[in-house]
Amino acid sequence: MAKRLFDLIVAALALVVLAPLLLVVAAIVRLDSPGPVFFRQERVGRHGVTFRIHKFRTMRHTPGSAPGPALTVGDDLRITRSGRWLRRSRIDELPQLLDVLAGSMSLVGPRPEVPRYVAHYPPALRERALAVRPGITDPASLEFIDEAALLARAADPEREYVEVILPRKVQRAADYAAQATLGTDLAVLWRTLRVLAGSR
Q1: What is the pLDDT of residues 86-106, one digit of tens each?
Q2: Which residue, 32, 94, 107, 157, could crosslink 151 as a Cys pair with Cβ 3.0–4.6 Å?
């Protein structure tokens, strides 16, 4: 209850305070390339229930075409000019504050995966990893802050993700779910702010 109340208060305040920035970013996204302001994608949430996550769109919008790879690898050609800055600064993640208010996400929790990768979760960890609301940030996000660059160095990026990175992420998610408190969430938020400020 305390975690949910904290999420609601902080998300609501953040949306009010950041409203001018969000409006400016929305305008930049629309002017930079044709397409919607938001990118919405099906993700797997608490107890395996799917929901649609919100982000600022950072890739070129091509209606009617087949979807591209689920992973973003290195200097992906699909990324727009503004998208590179949004991804680097993590500002593209801010619309997820709406998902926090809606109850689909939390400020801190395991990052929600797309169904195709949840299918690869180790059975022994799957239930534990999905026991809590997914979050905007978590320990695994901080550990793999340069994930796109790591995958770019792999001979087979998707195999590297599924066989090396994903199992470690799921283990971190299970560990988080087992010991999460408001105090640990505050510590993760503080670490996240430090990373975003450039002090790792």
Answers
A1: 998 999 999 999 999 999 999
A2: 157
